[in-house]
């Protein structure tokens, strides 16, 4: 039986690996304070606990038993979590990955707020940018959400590239069924050079570049000044990829906007109260300024 908490009090959390530096706890908790809610946001790091990604289902069950109102789900658990839920929102079902789980009336429901978070961030941070031809790095949970967002934004052609060509092919098949076979293709890294040469934009939806996964997800010589470059990574806010792209003269978009807008929607799902995204953005900026101090 699900444990009931008093009205206006919420226990929520984040499940993933390497999440000790996540800004989700202060981002959610500060907004709850502003709204007069009692809100505790806990981190459940499978890496720190020595657990495999396959333990995601057990963690969901345990969190439900302990009275969590809901959980955010991040790398590498977004797709694994799908098989352990009672129901999916239409967006989550189409994307095949969840980043938010809410328990209500004994039912575990999975949502995906990543795709709408990326959409709002893109429209805000890269206004007027062409999405005629876009290359996406990464076919995992974040990549699937970003792919849906880019196609929803109107991309004529999306090329999905993943180190695992089979995983890219599976995502392409899913996207083609929803958006049409003429709008999406993909495969392994051998596609990068040719597809980037004609592309308007590039999105990195892999964990490469984040704290714990340092590096650059592609050969930098493939970038050119006509590209806009976006990254879903937000710790650090400017990855090596974005720093190099900016030096080339590319328009760039960090992962901060996406993380705030997806968090705002997840907060609404958890608490049933609409947060103030602009206030959350200001809080995120203050957190990252503190984080950047020597």
From TrEMBL:
Q: Where is the active site?
A: 78 (proton acceptor)
Give the record's pathway: Metabolic intermediate biosynthesis; chorismate biosynthesis; chorismate from D-erythrose 4-phosphate and phosphoenolpyruvate: step 4/7
Per UniProt, the enzyme's principal EC class comes to oxidoreductase
- Cite a single Pfam family from the UniProt record: Shikimate_dh_N
Gene Ontology molecular functions = shikimate 3-dehydrogenase (NADP+) activity
Q: Which residues form the Shikimate dehydrogenase substrate binding N-terminal domain?
A: 14-101
Q: Where does shikimate bind?
A: 22-24, 74, 99, 114, 234, 262
Q: Which domain of life is it from?
A: Bacteria
Catalysed reaction, written as an equation: shikimate + NADP(+) = 3-dehydroshikimate + NADPH + H(+)
Give EC number(s), comma-separated.
1.1.1.25
Q: Which UniProt keywords apply?
A: Amino-acid biosynthesis, Aromatic amino acid biosynthesis, NADP, Oxidoreductase
Asked if NADP is a keyword of the record, the answer is yes
Q: Which residues bind NADP(+)?
A: 138-142, 232, 255
Q: Does the keyword ATP-binding apply?
A: no
NCBIfam families, alphabetically? PRK00258.3-3, PRK12549.1
Q: Which family does it belong to?
A: Belongs to the shikimate dehydrogenase family.
Role summary: Involved in the biosynthesis of the chorismate, which leads to the biosynthesis of aromatic amino acids. Catalyzes the reversible NADPH linked reduction of 3-dehydroshikimate (DHSA) to yield shikimate (SA).
UniProt subunit comment: Homodimer.
Q: What is the protein's name according to its record?
A: Shikimate dehydrogenase (NADP(+))
